[in-house]
Amino acid sequence: MTYDVPVAPGESADIDEGTELSAEPWPMWEVFVRAHRGLSHVHIGSLHAADAESALQNARDVYTRRGEGASLWVVRSSEIHSFDPDEISGYVEANEKVYRLATTYDIPDEVGQM
Amino acid sequence: MSPEERFDAIVAAEDKVEPADWMPEAYRKTLIRQIAQHAHSEVIGMQPEANWIARAPTLHRKAILMAKVQDEAGHGLYLYSAAETLGVERDELQELLHRGRHKYSSIFNYPTLSWADIGTIGWLVDGAAITNQVMLTRCSFGPYARAMVRICKEESFHQRQGYEILIRLCQGSAEQKAMAQDALDRWWWPSLMMFGPHDTDSTHTEQSMQWKIKRVSNDDLRQQFVDMTVPQAGYLGLTIPDPELRWNEERGHHDFGEIDWDEFWAVVKGNGPMNRDRVEHKVKAWEEGAWVREAATAHAARKAGRTAA
Question: Among A21, A28, B12, B288, which is disulfide-ready with A77 (CB 3.0 to 4.6 Å)?
Fold first, then answer.
């Protein structure tokens, strides 16, 4: 099956963004799931909901229908601040500081596992 | 390295493009369009199946079908979320669907006339979807690929429950088997149409494959699907309605007949048996749910006020 949109001869393939909406959409929430005890919560997706309570209810229905989660977090997407090292040139050149890596030190075999 | 070179390098290295990365505008637009159409398909796809929830033959089958339809809603949501990372609002995309500006998979413009159709949809329609979606787990856009991994896990249940319905019908009375054959007769060709136009007529394929949004061409996926499905039909003792279908020893694949492309384009353009009903029903459900959305918003505002006070 293909999800490319077939364009019939004579049809326009343009998408139309910026459509006016009749009501303000609910805010977006990011959903984090802890799959098993002992693991961290991992980001799994997002959803829209009016408030935290309904966001949690929806998250439970959408993301844990098959017992995938031992615990759920929801966070307003607008409350997440991000930083991407790739975007800043000259940010810590981790690769130049190889002395931080354990494998750069020579330990004689006789010493054994270290 | 220029942003464009960086993008090309990510794609070439089989790495994933993430929403914050620079990407060509055409790549972004292609993805929005494709992910939205995919999401709309999941949501509209609930209708032909929901048509049989109240008439499922047993309580067990009813529970299964409800779970499946609920999964489709979830798939729609994962996909709208993936589209939203590209800077569009879900409600905006939905509005475009309601206005007939956005499409969804044509397969859902065919009616579900008998219980055997529910089995056949699971077997063929979900089977065709899996063929495509497994490929899409390797798509170059991270959020789309991740949504596909989740969807594929759940899709397997959909296909197996459908095939099992057909096993029961084909092992049942002569009437039940005839019902299964009738369903296959009606769904076979539309299922092959799901893979889209021939590669030579597909406007998007080449660019999408270059960007690694798409990894396998329409015709190759269709061939894969036919080869996979023929023995499954054989096990059921059903006949695929294509007199030209035969094994080609030399190619190592099945040869099969030509799709009725006039029918394909007619349905794409909105003239299938159910096009109007599907969108009308979707709009009606959205409008009738307005009070629920308003009430939830009002409740949230009042609660927030109380906490602040």
Answer: A28
